[in-house]
Amino acid sequence: MTKQAKEILVAIIGAGGVGGHFLTQLATLVNQTPALNVSLCYLGIIDRVYWTSDYSAIDLANALDILAEKGQDPISLEQTIDYLAKAPSKVILIDNTSVQSIADLYPRILGSGISIVTPNKKAFSGTYDLWKEAFEAARSGGSLIEHECTVGAALPVLSTLRTLIAAGDDIHRIEGVFSGTMTYLFSTFSPVDGPASTARWSDVVKKARELGYTEPDPRDDLNGMDVARKLTILARIAGLKTESATSFPVKSLVPQALETVPSATEYLEKLPAYDHEMDELRATAEQHNNVLRFVGSVDVQSGALSVGLRQLPKMHPAAQLVSSDNIFSFYTKRYGDRPLIIKGAGAGGEVTAMGVLAGLLKTVDRLN
Amino acid sequence: MTKQAKEILVAIIGAGGVGGHFLTQLATLVNQTPALNVSLCYLGIIDRVYWTSDYSAIDLANALDILAEKGQDPISLEQTIDYLAKAPSKVILIDNTSVQSIADLYPRILGSGISIVTPNKKAFSGTYDLWKEAFEAARSGGSLIEHECTVGAALPVLSTLRTLIAAGDDIHRIEGVFSGTMTYLFSTFSPVDGPASTARWSDVVKKARELGYTEPDPRDDLNGMDVARKLTILARIAGLKTESATSFPVKSLVPQALETVPSATEYLEKLPAYDHEMDELRATAEQHNNVLRFVGSVDVQSGALSVGLRQLPKMHPAAQLVSSDNIFSFYTKRYGDRPLIIKGAGAGGEVTAMGVLAGLLKTVDRLN
After folding, report:
1. Tell me, what's the ipTM?
2. CA-angle at B50, arms to B49 and B56, nearest 5°
3. Which of A22, A70, A323, B166 has the fewest CB atoms within 10 Å around its CB?
4. Which of B158, B169, B326, B363 is the best mutation test for A, with the most CBs of A within 10 A?
5. Could you give the CA distance from residue B323 to residue B335 in angstroms, rounded to a whole number?
6. Is-contact A330 A353, C-beta < 8 A?
7. Total count of domains within chain B
8. What is the predicted pLDDT for the residue at B4?
């Protein structure tokens, strides 16, 4: 960090699971690191927004209270962009939401010279055009995009991939378990240790939901789209022009007949009728002394992407994941047969917020 | 990489196992990336040196041939520093050696405004004073130090640790197997899979030496100092003022009576007489269904560092390493019980050279 850092203004959208932790972490860090010289001028959530018309600093430690007391009805994103574009200093927008309509405006935001730091996957795993427009707009606007934490939260996944490529390595294949929810489900349903599991799939899903390991509607995890989005981002950074997160085979774990069932409750009620399907898959895996894991894989040389269930030997590093850990294996020319592996918690408010904060620090450093 | 990068001059010392690969990788990259705008003005090896008095570019693709044909007897390091300090552009010195006397001059080099990129551990794992002087000299000289590849070669170990700290996480403990040589020796002598090994320790060491997995004198690996140096670097980045790599307990695997035996050959001849000691350690581990691994560990909270043999359960990630892989586990406040893990080849000319190259790119980017 440069000692005499120029002031940089920060605008934050979102104060939920990630955003709440982020505000706390940022307030602590700014308090401990006066040289950092970043200040908050805008804080917005879905139904409320607070900003300073003269871009003066909002007290970070009390930002949520100030928003509650003095906040107004939300203004449009267009108005927000106009306000930020007129700021007297460089501006970083922190998008701590997963909202598509904000992601759609990234090209316009970046083109206005506003940098973006975000865990929101939507702009990077949507259409290839949106991806291209965002990065082109950043170039023309002199702004920066930092989205390391869209994949693996605070794990150094995208930066490692980018460094390997920049240093001239050839990426052959990237493979792993990119969803903490899937790790929890399958390490419970098809464990490596102990006697063969007799757990019923529907019970494991219900339990995971009760523990908060799934989205309120578990189908949002089980349809595989979260993994497909992360795989799309990895593939694009590896140089593929992947058209979208639905342009390659994704094996959904939601029985087709339950896809259109209106409520999560009804889905969970009807799920036991399909337990035999998962039982059969598990039995087949056990016959070969394997376990089931939900794996994402991109073969960079052939351009093939796939997301789905796989049988893995028990000694496979991805077989041994527990809790909500992720694992990313990079097979490259220089690493040969034994991949570079990064493993750890890939979700959760606290580590994801830390990933956003690390991205903010990197961006501040590069803007200075 | 900025598009209109300023020219940056590169001086390279060393063209051995790492340095040779580095020259090849750099030549390819510069050829493919004209925007990079780095050029070589100085190449030195132990008994020969070539430099351009007007700092004009040496043809990278033929640098070793040019050195062989036109090189002269080496000049002193002081003369080299004077030459580089007078350069018309910013200069990065690549120290691809493991020479202590070069490391000792880092403060002077950095204080002269010359940046350093290096896999040479000596300056960072020597006395704490040398470490402090080097970083202070860089601050006063406006130069940069990049030594990511001193630990784990091209694995993102130090950058990950620095990012966690910068983003406000508390590092509790760092632990792992930091030596590819030790991984090879113990995954052979005390394997996870198959029947209990009956391999003799002295045979495993001999075989490892024949395969080039150890230094010419295996005692240089087996005394534990390579691991102790890496642990010292990790501990210092984690905030400890570790006095040196000999200021904490390091369990040498060289029997005391063989420490002073003059030649590697004699050491290997006499080693079988000590096989029973390693047999007993392995038998004890097997009784508990464990394996032996050579582990480095720093408890950041208590400040305790240790390097030595440990019994590990077979499912422990460090137990399952093969070939010459390294593993680094970061236990932190935000990651809780399940550490952030980085694993992969942590030695070898090609990946270490890639680590140096990645460090060069990062430094060029920051100097621009």
Report:
1. 0.95
2. 150
3. A70
4. B169
5. 28
6. no
7. 2
8. 58
